[in-house]
Structures are given as structure tokens and as C-alpha cells.
Amino acid sequence: MILGVDTDVLIAWAMAGAPRHGAVRRLFEVEIRERGGRLALTPQVVQEFLHVSTDPRRFEQPFSMAEALQVCRSLIDAREIQWIAPARDVLRRTLDLLTELRLGRKRILDTALAATLECAGVRRLATLNARDFEIFSFLELVGPT
Q1: Which domains does the chain have, with CATH numbers?
Q2: Sequence-distant contacts of 107-112: CB under 8 A, at least 24 apart
Q3: Disulfide check for 4: which of 40, 108, 110, 143 has CB 3.0–4.6 Å away?
Q4: In what order do the strands lie in the sheet with 38-41?
């Protein structure tokens, strides 16, 4: 089974001092080792990871750009990762969801992630911000416990 990964979860996994770090590590362990699953990542999640994890306004000890890039490079060929690249149908679906659900500009990135996962057949998403994705009925939201 494939589990999509939201940026906040990727940050919690990578940053040892981040809240929920241990819980996210356990979630990934269960998904990969016990369930034989894979994690689905998209370029936009990794790009947002680079932006957020290096921001000194968000973290007392943010990653340096070199550290964040190294994390991203380590994911590129990881066998536990399934890469999902958005295509033209994702843009169309994103625009449709924004229209149908009457979402505004602050919801664009989450809607694009939801559309990317849906178009790739991924129905589960690990997120620490379930409220951001509850509106997308096609996603089962998974949070670390």
C-alpha cells in the first residue's frame, strides 16, 4: 500500500528536534516494514521541504541549505519511495477542485498535492494538518500516533 507524504510529515521525519519526530518515524516504520508499503513523494513536497526546513523564523535550529539538500538527495533513489510527478491532468484536477470546493489562494498547494495523489491512484496521505485535507473525500488521512 502506498502512503502519500505531506511536507509537515517529511519535516518531522527529517528534523530530530521537530515535534512529532518520533511518532512520524514510527509511522514510517509501520508502513514500510510491517505493511510492506511505500511512501509517495512529489517534487512540490520536496521543494516545500527545502523552503520550510531552512527557515530560521520557523525553527530555532533550521537545516542549512546543504543539510536540506542532502536529505532530499538521500530520498531520490530510496527504494521505499515512489515518486509521483504532476502532469497536465493534475493541473486540470487542481483547477476543478479549487472551483468545485470554492477554495481560495491559500489552499492552492494543498489542493495541488491532493490532486497529484488522486491522479496517481494514491488514496492515503500522512499529514500533521488533517484539517487542511479533510475536504478531499477521496483521501484517507493518516496521522502518527
Answers
A1: 2-142 (3.40.50.1010)
A2: 107/132, 109/44, 109/48, 111/136, 112/44, 112/86
A3: 40
A4: 81-83, 38-41, 2-5, 124-126, 140-142
Coil/strand/helix, residue 125: strand
CA distance 104 to 108: 7
Each residue's pLDDT expressed in tens, for the chain with a length of 145 residues: 899 999 999 999 999 988 899 999 999 999 999 998 999 999 999 999 999 999 999 998 999 999 999 999 999 999 999 999 988 899 999 999 999 999 999 999 999 999 999 999 999 999 999 999 999 999 999 998 7
- Distance, CA of 117 to CA of 97 (rounded, Å): 13
Tell me the DSSP string of 53-66. Answer: HT-TTT-SSPPPHH
Question: 82 forms bridges with which residues in the sheet?
Answer: 40
Output the pTM of the full model.
Answer: 0.93
Residue 39 is placed in which grid cell? 511512501
How many Å apart are CA 125 and CA 5, to the nearest integer?
6
